[in-house]
Amino acid sequence: MWGEWGFGKEMVRRWVVQARIGGGQCQGATSEELAEIKGLKAEVCRLEEDHEIFRRAWICFVGGGRPRQPLIVAFIDELRAAGHAVESICRVLREQGLSDRRADLPGLDAGQPPRSQPYRSTSPRSPTR
Judging by beta carbons within 10 Å of its beta carbon (0-12, 13-18, 19+), is residue 86 exposed, middle or buried? Predict the structure, then answer.
């Protein structure tokens, strides 16, 4: 019967199991709990990315004060090349008191390739906890 409507046997079985869980007849995570878990996992991923960006920024800008614009741009380009989203990088830098205004950081315009020179850390030390 379900095949006539385009539903596979496994799909129908999962719906029945999820309905039983939602109705309290079986143990397991409800649809709402699964959605919450998915949201929490996404938040953990975002926080892990923020932590990595902050750790690398701390190493790069450990000298204190506001780093010069070319250093910030090279740092952003390197993180971009490593797969981090520019929005995430700029958000973390802004939270740490560094500007993310496009006027302050040329080279972030759409279509421009990343710069080839990597940033240079001012210290070989790593952040301490």
Answer: middle
For residues 21 and 50, what is the distance between their CA atoms, to the nearest angstrom?
Answer: 36
Which structural domain range is residue 65 located in? 2-95
DSSP state of 120: -
The confidence score (pLDDT) of residue 66 equals 72
Q: Per the confidence metrics, is the pTM higher than 0.85?
A: no
* Whole-number Å distance between alpha carbons of 2 and 8: 7
Residue 22 counted as domain residue: yes
The reply to whether 121 falls in a domain is no
What lies within 8 Å, CB to CB, of 74 at 6+ separation is 115, 117, 118, 119, 120
Number of domains in the chain: 1
pLDDT for 37: 95
In a domain, 115, yes or no: no
Q: Could you tell me the mean pLDDT of each successive run of 10 residues in the chain, 129 residues long?
A: 76 86 83 92 95 88 75 90 91 75 45 41 40
